Amino acid sequence: MTQQNTLTYLSADSLPFSLEWLPPTACLVGGAVRDAFLNCSRNYLDLDFVLPDLAVETARNMANHYHAGFVVLDEKRRIARVVFKQGTVDFAQQEGESLETDLKRRDFTINAIAYNFHEQKLIDPLHGLQDLKQGILRMVSPKNLKDDPLRLLRAYRQGTQLNFTIEEETRETIRQLAPLIETVAAERVQTELGYLLSNIRGNENLIKAAKDGLLKPWFKQLTEDKLQQLIKIDQVVQLLREKLGQDDFYQFLNYDSDNYQYYPPTIQRAKLASLVSSSPDEAELELVYLKYSRADIRTVTKALNYSPLLQENQGDISLRELYFFFLEVGEIFPVLAVLALAKGIDIQAILSLIDRYLDPKDKVAHPSPLVTGHDLIKQLNLKPSPKIGKLLTEIQLARIEGKISTVEEALEFAKTFKNG
User: Fold this and answer.
1) Residues paired with 82 in a beta bridge
2) Strands of 10-53, DSSP E
3) Is residue 312 in some structural domain?
4) How many structural domains does the chain have?
5) Whose CA is closest to 274, among 336, 181, 349?
6) Cβ proximity of 353 and 319 under 8 Å
7) Which helix (H) or strand (E) element contains residue 91?
8) Rounded Cα distance, 96 and 103, in Å
9) Same domain? 241 vs 266
10) 38 Cβ partners below 8 Å, 6+ apart?
């Protein structure tokens, strides 16, 4: 994209407010300027302005005029946000004596470019535009990475997001500073990991981050085999796309077909299960420490629990065993199936299970009762007790094994079983 086209793209018409409410000294900085040069448009604006003074006051006046939302994000650093329908606009007090000083405190050169709307002028003291053209992610300085160690991991996230290459000196600095990642709040680390796990291009940089020492503090038993399994999961996704019809593929993985750049939670959780300890108990501790949700923890640990069953049997499981299997794994089966395929389990064995799972009429994967506990109590003159539950289970098993098919047969079977 040419500089002239970019200046057009960054016209005042793109702002959710009139230019008269923006002080002449205010400059747009960070991702919005970078993305303009990369021709990346966003449905929801996320604009960051730096002002030499009166940042909070500017935000408040603008919010009052437009009846927009207003919040002070950081009183000490003088940062405030105005919330429009089109997006958010942040105003921050300039750090240092000049805009150039402020830009030199940022993480990477491509994020250290500023634009003044009034003057239609770009400010690029660190030659970030050149790095943008070359697709390079280059640190501003080692000190800046050290001051906020999350930037060490963020380099790999931004490299993935932009499809950029991390410059070698920057990567070597990251390796040296890697131990500092342990000082970062777990929630912030989880956010960066989440992006790498969800992006269809995330594997390469996730593996590089691991090899550069940024994941070991969080995943104690991370090995080369586990990292290779991430690649196999990508291959499994492609395999399932080929083997399943399009509708079944999207349904099984709960895929958003309109957002093809990102994996659904099913794939993200399968990858997460590849990173954590193979022991469900230890994996749970790792995920709790990283502040993952209960749903994530439950899914990953259950997948780890049942993965050995599929590996040992390679799909050769009786109907009775399958009934209890689907009863136990429930909605996490897709994660388990992806994980099993990545571990080398026969594709045909898993496809037969997938067919059952996708068929709402399948009596093994989606059992529906012929009779209820109330029916048994009434027809067999039974008292409420745990025995009722056992009878219902045996009736269900007899049904899927083809021994009974009607309510009458179910009641007769229960009577015989009860007296047996």
Assistant:
1) 70, 89
2) 27-29, 45-51
3) yes
4) 4
5) 336
6) no
7) strand 87-93
8) 9
9) yes
10) 1, 132, 162
The pTM of the full predicted model, rounded to 2 decimals, is 0.87
CA-wise closest residue to 89 among 57, 47, 128: 47
The verdict on residue 32 lying in a domain is yes
Closest CA to 326 of 294, 295, 355: 355
Backbone angles phi, psi at 286, to 5 degrees: -65, -40
Does any domain span residue 219? no
Tell me which amino acid residue 237 is. V
Q: Based on the fold, state whether residues 8 and 73 are members of the same structural domain.
A: yes
* Helix H or strand E encompassing 98: none
Return the structure tokens found at 43. 């449905």
Helical ranges in 222-372 per DSSP H: 224-243, 246-253, 265-275, 280-289, 294-313, 319-329, 333-342, 347-358
Among candidates 110, 209, 114, which has minimal Cα distance to 164? 110
Q: Are residues 40 and 66 in the same domain?
A: yes
Is 218 a domain residue? no
Give 141's contacts (C-beta < 8 A, 6+ positions apart).
Answer: 104
CA dihedral 98, 104, 105, 111 (to 10 degrees): 110
Q: Which of 226, 191, 187 is nearest to 342 (CA)?
A: 226
End residue of a domain, out of 97, 114, 133: 133
CATH value at residue 107: 3.30.460.10
Do 354 and 231 share a structural domain? yes
| Whole-number Å distance between alpha carbons of 305 and 419 | 36
- 393 and 289 in a common domain: no
pLDDT by residue for the chain (420 residues), tens digit each? 445 445 556 778 889 999 999 999 999 999 999 998 888 777 788 999 999 999 999 999 999 999 999 999 999 889 999 999 989 999 999 988 899 999 999 999 999 999 999 999 999 999 999 999 999 999 999 999 999 999 999 999 999 999 999 999 999 999 999 999 999 999 999 999 999 999 999 999 999 999 999 999 999 999 999 999 999 999 999 999 999 988 999 999 998 767 778 999 999 999 999 999 999 999 999 999 999 999 999 999 999 999 888 877 766 788 888 999 999 999 999 999 999 999 988 899 899 999 999 999 999 999 888 889 898 888 888 888 888 888 899 999 999 988 998 999 888 888 887 665
Q: What's the domain range around 191?
A: 135-211
